[in-house]
Amino acid sequence: MSDDSNQMLAYLRQNPRMMGVLFTLTLLLSQAGSVAAGNTSVIYGP
User: Fold this and answer.
1) What DSSP state is assigned to residue 43?
2) Secondary structure of residue 45 in the 3-state scheme
3) What is the CA radius of gyration of the chain?
4) Which spans in 1-46 are helix H?
5) Which CA distances in Å does 46 have to 8, 43?
């Protein structure tokens, strides 16, 4: 496991933009759960 994390750290050091991409992806995925859970309201009648 340590070997894999060292490879990931080396990759992120060589490609610093990927850190921003991974952060943005994590942020969007964490917000998607809230949106899906909040979209369950039902409107009855006119």
Assistant:
1) -
2) coil
3) 19
4) 2-14, 17-38
5) 55, 8
